[in-house]
Predict the structure.
Amino acid sequence: MAKLTDLTLAEAREGLKTKRFSATELAQAHLDAIEAANAALNAFNLVTPEHALDMAKASDARLKKGEAGALEGIPLGIKDLFATRGFRTTACSHILDGFTPTYESTVTGNLWREGAVMLGKLNNDEFAMGSSNETSYYGPVVSPWRRKGSDAKLIPGGSSGGSSAAVAARLCMGATATDTGGSIRQPAAVTGTVGIKPTYGRCSRWGIVAFASSLDQAGPIARDVRDAAILLKAMASHDPKDTTSVDAPVPDYEAAVGKGVKGLTIGIPKEYRVDGMAPEIEALWQQGVEWLKAQGAKIKEVSLKHTKYALPSYYIVAPAEASSNLARYDGVRYGLRMPGSDVTSMYENTRSAGFGAEVKRRILIGTYVLSHGYYDAYYLKAQKLRTLIKRDFDEAFKEVDAILTPTTPSPAFAIGEKTGDPLEMYLNDIFTVTVNMAGLPGMSVPAGLSSEGTPLGLQLIGKPFDEETLFRVGRAIEEAAGPSARPRDWWSRAA
Amino acid sequence: MSVDRATVHRIAKLARIAITEEEAERLEKELSGILDWVAQLDEIDTKDVEPMTRVVAMTMRQRKDEVTDGDCAKDILKNAPSTDDGYFVVPKIVE
């Protein structure tokens, strides 16, 4: 029998049902893998072995009684942005030192209700602000992938870098993640995993540490398209506690996997052919087109003419909303407190010590664009740009069922390579951020390896609440790309 | 459209983040760089465009006006750095 950690979530579900192994064995296999790997990868910032084994034992009891939920006994990692009752939740910020929620986020609550097992909390960029997982208070996550003939440490993408690294290194069967400007899709792309950011409103944001409320969405990172479909179905729900969550039934996403692409029209946006795009990214994109054509899809060029304004308007909207959301960290109700001579200096000293450089930068940009006299020129202007960006998509979706683009402008870079200039880092999100600005669903699917031997992904963008088409097309790309390469294990202590 | 040193200090004060002169120097450059870059949005005339507020038209449901939560003072205070007799404690505000 193959190693338990090598199974996909769907395979493990079958194995548990047919009693080939127990949930306890499955959880233990993953805990052992984490134990052997985490010193090298730093993917988990909290491991909860006792809790995992308790949950697995309860799963085994339910499996025995024939009362299994959709994710019964499946061991998952949880991004440290999701509040988990009784377990430290910090958004990987110093300012939330030791914060232990007395409540559970809706998304994780949904997962536990379906029988999933929590292995621990996953590292991420501080407050999900970053594209490389280098801004975490708990230190950077190291990708399990390496360039051919090099042992330079590569980034696993961000902000959900712990999620992508843990799934790629087979430390968990799937992971929760969040995406404000690309934080699910970009890490998935550079680690050879599947990540989907559903339509804004599909998953409840309740209990997720807020970054930019009009953009934040939760979604899964998984080993393959089917696993992502299974996870998203369990995560999504209407939640009266989040007024922006949509009151519509959650489709059976897994049923869409394998339906093929015959009869679908796929759009190729010409504005995504940006200057300086690496030739291998361009070639990968063309390969995706050929794959879908060969499977019976029609291809059509579309125009999304406001694409170039998405990133600059994002860097108004996201910091503005962040500056407002992060005002709550004042050293009074939770987390870190630094002393001061009066209450104001206590606030100032706490926030100075508690926030990292990138978070401060964004709070200050946000404070500036929302300050007196600037609201119309910045925030309102950016929200108007969002209307134009959304309108471009609405027009395109009159003619096509989904849109295909690269996920990232380049393969994974090395840790420390792009920390000098914030703007250079922001450009990582150039292909993903439009999707958040328009609130649409987007998915990244592994599509091959770069000339450096590291993964590259293709992005699919769908109509609002039409995640099913993304799972159909995603599976078609996955099938055409063939069995995905996996990183050679250099990180396990036993290896 | 550039940010000067005094503006950096003013917004840091508004954001309640203590910054050193060294940080202010770095932030002056970084914030100016970012704001100069977003200034390209001025190329687009948005006079007659409505700001985006939602992805698809949906009516928000109203819930019954009734208490759904409460009696959890202990939970609320559990993570506070300093509490006393059911209250959050902060440095003296009024002399």
